[in-house]
Amino acid sequence: MNNLMAWLEERFNISAATKFAAKKKVPVFYGTVWYYLGGVSLFLFIIQVFTGILLILYYRPGATTAFESVKFIITKVQFGWLIREIHSWSANLFIFFLFAHMFSVFFSKAYRKPRELTWYSGMFLLFMALGFGFSGYLLPWNELSYFATKVGTDIAGAVPGIGEFVLRLLRAGDDVSGATLSRFYGIHVAILPAIFTLILGLHLVMIQVQGMSVPPEQENLPAEKKKYMPFFPNFAMRDFLIWLIVLNVIALLAVFFPWDLGIKADPLSPAPAGIRPEWYFMFMFQTLKLIPAHVLFIEGELLGILAFAFGGIVWFLVPLLDRKAHQGKRSKFWTFFGIALIVYMIVLTIWGYLV
Amino acid sequence: MKRLTFLLFFLIGLNPVFPLQSDSRDACISCHITVDEDLDDGDKIMPHFYDDVHYEKGLSCADCHGGDPTAFDDEDAAMTDSDSFLGEVTRDMEPEVCGKCHSDPSYMRQYTAHVKTDQVEQYWTSMHGMRLKEGNDKVAVCTDCHGLHGIRAVSDTRSQVSDFNVPGTCSRCHSDAEYMAEFKIPTDQFAKYKTSVHGKALLERRDSAAPACNDCHGNHGAQPPNIAHISDICGTCHVNNMNLFQNSHIAEIFSKRQLGQCAGCHNYHDIAKPTDEFISWSDKSICRRCHKDNENAKELATGLYNIINNLKMQNSVAIDKVENAEQRGMEVSDLQYELEDVHQTLIQTRTAIHSFNTEYVQKVADKGFKAAEAAITGADNAITELLFRRKGLFVASLIISFLVIVVYLQIRSYEDKD
């Protein structure tokens, strides 16, 4: 072992990295628990990559092969069901933990100077994760996913100016078809993973260089009252322990709550009742359903899309807009804004499932 | 005010009722519009005629009644002075007057390539036609079924002879005991038909594929089916049942004893939805109506009933097992195909009963037994797989829990040192 380390040291000067790691500390206070959310999200992404690669070995994109190949995976391939279930469940948990991570960062004001770029990169990762979800939902080519994609791309098509272009770009034609499936597959397994991995790398590097952020009130404490734990091995081992628990939860969900494959999509059949998007799009879907067809002179759907676009931009630019956070203070407005957003998302999501 | 007047005239022009006032297609119509004004609503001709398919196709009064439709403002020239003028078309004249066009293929072809032109020919072979020839004009003639001046195309659901309206149209006469008294035939056909499997399908479920009176008795050549050939009539739709029955040993016996083939067991007009108990040796048995305590018949009926009953029970077990596997989250769509096969075979087996041959029925049912067995085995395998997954989860959870404890103890040891 020592010989190997010496061999590596001679060639790569790894002692610089190990010294950096040895010095790395994690603040210990009431909010330390929130630090684990980013790590859990990272773990789930790694699971996504591994299970996704295994699924690629059997999955065959195409209107006549996609559904059949997924069915083959879950019924005939040895442990194929397990890989698919883990992929589906970890995808959903991935989005859940990303949202939780984002809100924890928001409420601890971790986006304030000097970590603005970390927030921006994190937001890009969240948008891409939603893109993973949207594109992956269509891949089994079942009835529900087909029509949900149709509705989803229709909404994208309602954007003024670029809507028609975006619609055709996503669908690879006028309607959702086998060409759309191929395109979504390409986006899901090649384009998004490549960009996601790059930005994730940047996100992690920034965290390593700048260290963990603490809320303003912790930062302002006198030095003697601040507590830390070493990242290696203490925090890393705690991370590992939580990853193991999450893995067990995924296995439990995979066995007791398997995802239904549904009925194969038939583009010529009428849309079935109860079309709904994935749960993380439900609050937007339900909002669009509630807005009247016309509000004053604007079409209701367009108004909803513009409102979401505006809200998204405001949320993205919060490091610029929350001036108090840079002064080490909490803004009541932004705290209320964050709480209102969580309440709105939860209420509309539940409403969407109940109606 | 001028604008208002213009608007009023414009709206009147759009109103479908008012075009009558200005219709001057020919002399007959322009005059009869005026005649209609003095008649009660029920006696008016033109309001009905504007809904008539003949009017839609460009025909007019003179095409049936004769006369000179170009003689405007000259009543005598239009009617009595014209050689072709028939005046009122009496009931006995109707078949030939209608047949003037409807029996002419070269004329009728202009309206549709597949038009039938044998209605009049068939009509004279019908009970209605034969009685009319004998001078009895109480029997149905063309307008009784198709309507008078408001005749609609048969494909028009408002027509008196469209699929759903045929039973009601026939029953106007055939359910009228007083009107039918002199013909000495029953008048309960419609009442019975309404309660039958066919009547319920046509009139309640609005299934246009279900037979109405004309599908068994014929349209223009309406006759009661010949008792020796009832299975040919039923076999128009129930082809397999007919073939099996006609090739069975029972067909000859039915024929010799004039038992009415299909109707012998299933009745006519009040044909009930058949149940498997029809061939059981219970109180609901149809066979026992004639065979009483015949041991051979009992053995045959019981044998056939048992095959169906066993297949039903096997089907029920298979459905329960597949549903159980599905409810527990297993992928069973392939097994659904097996269940569909069992269901199809059950239908085929019920049809095969008409062979009255136990060996043949068993052979047909065997396909269903095999499919049911495959579904049961598949469902059992799915449950075995499910249990394997749960055991696997248990083992994995044990290993992970062990690792969690090890890591936790490791963390404690680091932190105790600190």
Compact overview of the structure:
Helices cover 70% and strands 3% of the residues of chain A. By secondary structure, chain A is mainly alpha-helical. Chain A has a domain at 24-268: Cytochrome Bc1 Complex, Chain C.
The name of the CATH superfamily of the domain at 24-268 in chain A reads Cytochrome Bc1 Complex, Chain C
Mean pLDDT of chain A: 94
Distance between the termini of chain B: 103 Å
Shape of chain B: elongated
Low-confidence parts of chain B? 4-22
State Rg of chain B: 35 Å
Total number of β-strand segments of chain A? 4
Q: What is the percentage of strand-forming residues of chain B?
A: under 5%
Strand content of chain A: under 5%
Low-confidence segments of chain A: none
| Main sheet summary of chain B | none
Question: Which strand order do you get reading across the main beta sheet of chain A?
Answer: 1-2
The CATH class name of the domain at 24-268 in chain A reads Mainly Alpha
Instruction: Write the CATH fold name of the domain at 295-417 in chain B.
Output: Butyryl-CoA Dehydrogenase, subunit A, domain 3
Overall pLDDT score of chain B: 88
Number of strands of chain B: 0
Classify the helix fraction of chain B into a percent range: 55-70%
CATH topology of the domain at 24-268 in chain A: Cytochrome Bc1 Complex, Chain C
